[in-house]
Write a structure and sequence with these properties.
Helices cover about 40% and strands about 15% of the residues. With about 250 residues, it is α/β, with parallel strands linked by helices. The chain binds 2-phosphoglycolic acid.
Length: about 250
Amino acid sequence: MKKLIVGNWKMKPLTYDEAERLVDKISAFPNKDGAKIVLCPPFVWLTDLSHEAPSGIEFGAQDVFWENPKKGGAFTGEISAAMLKNSNVKYVILGHSERRNILGETDEIINKKITIVIHSGLNPILCIGEPKNVSRKGFEAVASFLTKQIGSDLMGVKNSGLRKLVIAYEPYWAIGSGVPQDTKDASDIAEFIKKFINQKYKIKNIPVLYGGSVNSSNAKDYLSLRNINGLLVGGASVDASEFLKILRAV
Ligand code: PGA
């Protein structure tokens, strides 16, 4: 399985020119085939970039709406899965902790979005992770928190629909904090997630990414773990030289 490197640009950069320059620099990386690269710019830049996707780079959205009426619908401000599909967008990040914690997205909402994303043939990247107070209690507590999250987010989704699913394990406290999860813990948790998905949904070796304060100095530590199939990179993904170093680490 090729390592999957996802850049979550969040609400950056502020101009289209900067966004385009970032893609140009990444697309000039000579060894792109060594990894699967997915860039997730904000919606305002996403579709211009994805229509012109350079070879070796795929694009993802940071969100989608849960309704997807055939002829479009009256949902002010929202973007449908069909619009993404028609714009050469391949992936959608769902359940990111910033959406869960700042925007109040519930597991129920995430479940509706995952259902639409799968139904539309897009690839969902489901973010899961525990807060610090759960992490402090140790492995069992984290495992039970994550299985509840996965169970609610995937409720009612048919096993066959999960073939395209990617899970991103991102402990909330590690995101943007400069303090990543310990590599051994990340590996143990990724292994646990794979076993759980295999037992409950009969999907073998589901891709599990690690995310949370990944940068060019620690990327290699995670990439060398057998249970980690790639990275979800936030801050370091909008800095071209950092992101290129991460690609080199692959
Ligand atoms: P970070 O963000 O790499 O800036 O910690 C990761 C994420 O939010 O996906």
